[in-house]
Design a protein that fits this description.
Blueprint: H1 2-11, E1 16-19, H2 30-33, H3 35-44, E2 49-55, E3 72-76, H4 81-87
Parallel strand pairs: 1-2, 2-3
Length: 89
């Protein structure tokens, strides 16, 4: 998070958006790492930092009560049975 703060400072006065799921879905490891919760809490306290992540999982209960200060965006992917059959295997 320290490095993220440096990037935010360099880009001022612009907002800087950090992606928390660029290479994989972070939800399956959240119960062990708590890294999403930490990131959400960190970026909620920044003036110009924003955080977003995408998931296909519904296990987000541990994140629902985290104060995100309007600085976190969660994207969900909902696929049809055909998409799952043809592309997700």
């Amino acid at each position: 998070m320290e490095q993220a703060g440096k990037y935010i400072e360099v880009r001022l006065p612009e907002k800087t958006i950090f992606e928390g799921s660029a290479t994989s879905d972070p939800i399956p490891v959240e119960p062990y790492s708590h890294s999403l919760k930490q990131a959400i809490q960190y970026f909620s306290k920044t003036e110009k930092g924003r955080f977003r992540f995408a998931t296909k999982f519904t296990d987000v209960d541990t994140l629902l009560d985290v104060d995100h200060g309007g600085h976190t965006e969660v994207r969900f992917s909902l696929n049809t049975d055909r998409v799952i059959q043809d592309f997700e295997r």
